[in-house]
Write a structure and sequence with these properties.
This protein is mainly β. Helix content is 0%, strand content 58%. Strands 2, 4, 5, 6, 9, 10 and 11 form a 7-stranded mixed β-sheet that branches. A 4-stranded antiparallel β-sheet has the order 1-3-8-7, with no helix packed on it.
Length: 120
């Protein structure tokens, strides 16, 4: 199995920055390919924030492009999300997601989430 633990959330003023971390561990971490950050704002559905493959290819939701950067350090088993120029609408619970193939089956894993609150 794979466990994901996020940290780095908190309260920040608009225009500020935060860096989220997601440490992954477990017997199957060698199977992880894609990792993503999702967020869920109050009263809204969960949305994809950013995506990174094992080869380092990245993709972002349009509203995050130029402000957020996803990265991963496989030596430290850690996924990051650097968030700059934060806006009140970035408020939400940010969750880490990982997936990979194991014995021919796609397996997915979620962290518990970390709260980000951006004040105006």
């Amino acid at each position: 199995q794979v466990a994901l633990v996020e940290s780095g959330g908190g309260l920040v003023q608009a225009g500020g920055s935060l860096r989220l971390s997601c440490v992954y561990s477990g017997a199957y971490i060698f199977t992880i390919n894609t990792m993503r950050w999702y967020r869920q704002a109050p009263g809204k559905q969960r949305e994809l924030v950013a995506h990174i493959t094992s080869g380092g290819s990245t993709n972002y939701a349009d509203s995050m492009k130029g402000r957020f950067t996803i990265s991963r350090d496989n030596a430290k088993n850690t996924l990051y999300l650097q968030m700059n120029s934060l806006k009140p609408e970035d408020t939400g619970v940010y969750s880490c997601y990982a997936e990979g193939l194991f014995v021919g089956a796609l397996r997915s894993y979620w962290g518990q989430g970390t709260q980000v609150t951006v004040s105006s």
